[in-house]
Amino acid sequence: MTEMAQSGEHEQLRRLREGWEEVEAEETRLLREMTIEESFQQLLSLQSDFEPQLQRTESLFRADRLAYLEDLQNKLGRLEEWKKKRRGRSI
Questions:
Q1: Has residue 88 got a pLDDT over 80?
Q2: How far, in whole angstroms, is CA 14 from its chain's centroid?
């Protein structure tokens, strides 16, 4: 890639990033205003929209998902052991 092309790409990225903090702050504000019911409805809507794609790609990502779940279970197990050890101790 030429130096001029890289410069142009960097400029495009810089323009995309301008004001991004404000967008994230507004997104956070809107999310905090949502009720549990609204949040749950949003989740169900997203699941409905993306479920066909998730079904089509399931075989591609199954191993990664299973590895992630196994890792999560291990972490939760370690957390539980830590909590058991901490019981009875003053904090």
A1: no
A2: 23
Per-residue DSSP letters for 12-32?
HHHHHHTTHHHHHHHHHHHHH
Q: Which residue's structure tokens are 């590895």?
A: 67
Tokens describing residue 76 = 């939760």
Q: What pLDDT, on a 0 to 100 scale, did the predictor assign at position 91?
A: 53
Contacts of 34 (CB under 8 A, 6+ apart): 42
Q: Rounded distance, CA 4 to CA 78, Å?
A: 51
The pairs formed by 27-34 with CB atoms below 8 angstroms and a separation of 24 or more are none
Name the helix (H) or strand (E) containing 85: helix 36-86
Q: How far apart are the C-alpha atoms of 1 and 13, rounded to whole Å?
A: 16
For 19: left if phi > 0, alpha if psi spans -120 to 50, otherwise beta; the answer is left
pTM assigned to the model: 0.44
